[in-house]
Amino acid sequence: MKNWLEIFLISLRLGLTSFGGPVAHLGYFHEEYVKRRAWLTEKQYADLVALCQFLPGPASSQVGIGIGMVRGGVVGGFISFTGFTMPSVLLLMAVAVGFQQQGLIELGIIDGLKIVAVAVVAHALLGMGRNLAPDKERATIAVLAFTSVLLVPSVWIQVVVILTAGLLGWRLYRNENLPKAEGLPLKLPLKLSVVMLGLFGGLLALLPVLRAMTDHLHIQLADSFYRAGALVFGGGHVVLPLLEREIVPAGLMSESQFLAGYGAAQAVPGPLFTFASYLGMVIDGVPGAVTATAAVFLPAFLLLLGVLPIWLKIQQIPAMLAAVTGVNAAVVGILAAALYSPVFTSAILEARDMAFAGLLFMILVYWKRPAWVAVILGILGGLLFYGG
């Protein structure tokens, strides 16, 4: 119980302060859970990030669920998800009934918080690069992953890069005497994989059938949002246009209503997948918001619980250890690409922005202050330099 309360309070604080999108969230998680609290080692964290990058759905939310499970079991995973997600769910439900986020933009707070995200992600990458790409071979894999993700505009490129890095890692390190995988301190039975993956596939097949058999609004919502959460690679920025094609042509809301929520979803902390809460609220009030939110995140739970027991077993195989060595280096490159776009390109528009990011980076790296200090300074700097 004590662990569960701790998990909730920490994840809630992160849910209130983690601006900047999925890659920024991974930076905040690294700072909080690896650097400050040592709930996971660098290697364990990188393994979990690599697995969640490979799965469809909201990668940062899945990483948060996994960390919660490490600390407090399956219940801890749900509590971690709830704390991290709840603030943006409630904010976007409020937007749907008339609460306007424009005031934050006019005050410059969002501009300041975007620059905080640059410093936080750069700090996380510095530590991960030292640990996971320390030699020329792994550094090369990281740079190749970085350039591939930047130059190939496809939502599938991350999966291709991870698979290729795994093959390179196996080829380069299969005869090396690698240290055993640290694994995650979790005991999950393999039969859990069968149940969870069966549910995942069963719902994916059943919901369209039910939708064809009835015109019930909530069946329609469950099908659209579950499919979006189950089949989207690349995170929240990819799921938003997919949902537009599901919602607007069906006459469930106007284009202007959708775009207003789209903007608000990118101005609040937490996962972008909570845009579903706004859409559901506009369509059918609180019941619609509950259905849409549950449906879009459910695949993330089912897939993670389905794949983790298998992952915990196979990562101890020597050939898999070699492959994971390459994958972890690729994760550094993938996150570096995301640091550039969209985090850096959307936040650093002039010399003043770069100077502010440099100061925040110094506070995190050399003064070793926690990320929440940078968040507070980002808000103050936004009010001072970007307001009006």
TrEMBL record:
Q: Which GO terms describe its molecular function?
A: chromate transmembrane transporter activity
What is the superkingdom listed in this entry's lineage?
Bacteria
Supply one GO CC term from the record.
Answer: plasma membrane
Q: What is its main location?
A: membrane
Regarding the membrane, this protein is recorded as: Multi-pass membrane protein
Q: InterPro entries of this UniProt entry?
A: Chr_Tranpt_l_chain, Chromate_transpt
Give compartment(s).
Cell membrane
One Pfam family linked to the record = Chromate_transp
Q: TM segments?
A: 7-29, 78-99, 111-129, 141-170, 190-213, 264-283, 289-312, 319-341, 371-387
What are the entry keywords?
Cell membrane, Membrane, Transmembrane, Transmembrane helix
The Swiss-Prot or TrEMBL record describes its family as follows: Belongs to the chromate ion transporter (CHR) (TC 2.A.51) family.
Q: What is this protein called?
A: Transporter, chromate ion transporter family
- Per the UniProt entry, what species is this protein from, by scientific name? Salisediminibacterium beveridgei
